[in-house]
Design brief:
The radius of gyration is 23 Å and the shape is globular. By secondary structure, it is of the alpha/beta class. It is built from 14 helices and 12 strands. The mean pLDDT is 91. The relative contact order is 0.11. The strands form 3 sheets. A 6-stranded mixed sheet has the order 7-6-8-9-10-12, sandwiched between helices. A 4-stranded parallel sheet has the order 2-1-3-4, with helices on one face. The protein has a two-stranded parallel ribbon with strand order 5-11.
Length: 381
Amino acid sequence: MHRRSVALLVETSNAYARGLLEGVVDYVRQHDAWSIYLPEQERGAAPPAWLSRWSGDGIIARIETDAIATAIQETSLPVVDVSAARRLPNIPWVETDDKSIAELAFKHLADRGFQRFAYCGDPIFNWSIWREKRFVDFVIEAGYECDVYQSKDRSAPQFSWTSERDRLMKWMEQLPKPIGIMACYDIMAQRLLDVCHEQNIAVPEEAAIIGVDNDHLLCNLSNPPLTSIECDSRKTGYEAASLLDRLMSGEAIGEKAIRVEPVCIETRLSTDTLAIDDPIVAKVVRYIREHASAGINVSDLLPLVPWSRRVLESRFQKILGRTPHEEITRIRLDRVKHLLRNTDLTLSSIARQVGYEHEEYLSAMFKKQTGMTASDYRSSF
């Protein structure tokens, strides 16, 4: 039986791209073995010299330059694109679900009480443009305004990192504070953190910053450590391999697009704050976050406030858009999701850890809140 040869024109220099490659490996291990060609190259590099004379069976590539697009097209081989640049039409492509990413970022910042928002993007990437549009839409739908920063085109002759940094500093300086900022990806978020440090803008108290990709090394080296959305690049790579397998088997797929939803938000110090003007409500929210897993209920909150239960719930609803009970449930549910994703604990053990006496109650609550069972949620990761 012929063993298919597949070229992976994907750089290995960042966490997202490495996740793509891991997803391809997952597919190959579960299905027919391929001979893999993985050249060492950087993002946007010239096409490898061997590609024009390569007699393989298929290609998975991040097609982000015209040169790569032309070289791949000339091979006449089946190809799947894992870039949003869309340099080569009429072929299937797999990318991040940028609407879901933007929604996660907005809700994360809004849950912390922010009412002022901004987006920092890089217009050379389609995914940055799409994330910007969706993020602004969510902000406006919630009744707020959103400032937007777009970096200059790095390919322009007059571009310099010094002038770009100066522009970014002026933008950050004029933003109203406190403010929640979504950066298009982690590298941009790290630049924002550096600017805040130089301008003595307190993070997260004055500016809470969230990135995208959850590059663990980059996020933990940032000061303070960066909150980031984890894209499911591994699933993206798996889906791309599946599509390529179908193409190499002769199936006509056309310009099929698959959008892969993000996994979760990894909360770190860059957003770990409460932008709530009411100090008593802020105190209660902080108490909930610290003690939700201890099995507290709304009655446990009343000694913290000089109000009746009705007034507390009214204040909560006005400021956060949800009741104290809903906040307790939300915090517990986030903890349950984290444990399902990252541990092998039984649902019974998880229930005890998050303050539920009965596994059955947690199971029913989880299904009601998420639309799926806890076991289905865990297996999806």
